[in-house]
Specification:
With about 475 residues, the protein is of the alpha/beta class. The protein has helices at about 25-35, 75-90, 105-120, 140-145, 165, 175, 190-205, 230-240, 245-255, 275-285, 310-330, 345-355, 370-375, 410-420, 425-440, 445-455, and strands spanning about 5-10, 40-45, 55-60, 65-70, 130-135, 150-155, 185-190, 215, 220-225, 260-265, 295-300, 335-340, 355-360, 385-390, 400-405. The protein starts with a strand and ends in a 17-residue tail after the last helix. The structure holds GDP-alpha-D-glucose.
Amino acid sequence: MGQLVIVSNRVAIPEKNAKARAGGLEVAVEAALRHKTGIWFGWSGKVAPTHTKIATQKVVHDEITYITLDLSKEDHQEYYNGFTNRVLWPILHYRIDLAEFSRRDLSGYLRVNDHFARELHEVLGPDDFIWVHDYHLIPLAKALRERGHKNRIGFFLHIPFPPPEILTALPHHERLIPSLCEYDLVGFQTGDDAFNFSRYLTRECGLPSRDFNFVVGDRTMRIDVFPVGIETAAFAELAQRSVRLPFVKRVITSLAGRALIIGVDRLDYSKGIGHRLSAFELFLQRQPQWLGKVTYLQIATKSRTEIPEYADIERDIGSAAGRINGAFGEADWTPIRYINHPYSHSTLAGLYRAARVGLVTPLRDGMNLVAKEYVASQNPDDPGVLILSRFAGASHECKAALLVNPYDPDSVAAAIAQALSMPLAERRERHNSLFRVLSHNDIQHWAERFLAALERKPNAIGQLGQMPSVGS
Ligand code: GDG
């Protein structure tokens, strides 16, 4: 039996005194690897100075070997800042309008995937199982197959997969998307994402599907749905302890009995923070009885700061928060507390528990772990209420949340009012139902289901279609 090799763009090497990190993929993979052995391979997060030879680094920690490589300045610009973050991220989040395509960035993206495959080639054994994460590494299996690797290779997409009507706006999609067929298993967060990919394969590649199985040459590629979870039980315990942290206690005291609404997001346009602020403003206008009685804490950690669209939202959201505070605040009350730096996970857990409302309203999100962390953190005897966008993958499981359309400020404002005045019995009932779902589908369950599906050889099925020649 071979070992498990996880590949992701970034690798979270455990470090003493590491700064708090905000990023769902790292949080999920880190938790999924707990109690397992294997290799985690990817970019170190560092950019190598020009003209230095780029070598891989290896660190062993708790039976996991972390292998990382730096990126050259050019690779960082074209692969990371360029194609993944300015093309794939917006298009996969349904934002064709924000995509900035260039052929040079696409070449950089393919080059870095090839570089990853070259380095992996040095460490892979024939029986190893390879689990590749996210949109940075779509063509990695193809690059590995070209080097003769016949291993079972799985891919999990953490972010949404849009319908083919949107995806085909991606220049050269036909060179890239069909290369996902080189994986044995392609996993998605929701049934909608899986269905969209299946439709793409049928429509653009002429591959009919039988129960999400596609015959590609002499292999079968399977699609399935694996909604990512959190360490639900551990997070609940952490929150119970953390609410007593001195800092969390200070925050609670500073509220002076006001109800707390919390939002926690990377500062990203997909998270809908601007729309959320407008909805909160509308709530203050429509529900004046809450003026002075509620505080909205928005933690929005800066992310991808080198990319212009991110600088734009940072400016817009900062000024909207200031404007609303100016219009509604009093000398003894600030409606919005707006913070741009990260807190430790234990502080976050304590703050979630202290909050009467969790406001999670992305415009589009693969899953959204914050929604799940908020639910896990609640005191079951006196729980807060989750308001959740119907466009977050988490809404497929979290049916007992107050589901809203983030583009409709009226519905979000009404949900805030409903959440703040919800009777205890209803809060308990909703929380109990949400917590049960999240306890069943926790992060261990997610990882085990994916790996079991990857190990399972598909049943022989008839030849359904021919793979079109995938661009070189
Ligand atoms: C991608 C997909 C999918 C946030 N602020 C702080 C902090 N965080 C942590 C949260 C949570 C994580 O970062 C964010 O996860 P999300 O799921 O909400 O969002 P993305 O980063 O966009 O993640 C997403 C996810 O991958 C997993 O598949 O759910 O749809 O976009 O864990 O707690 N952590 C700390 N300080 C902060 O200030 N320590």
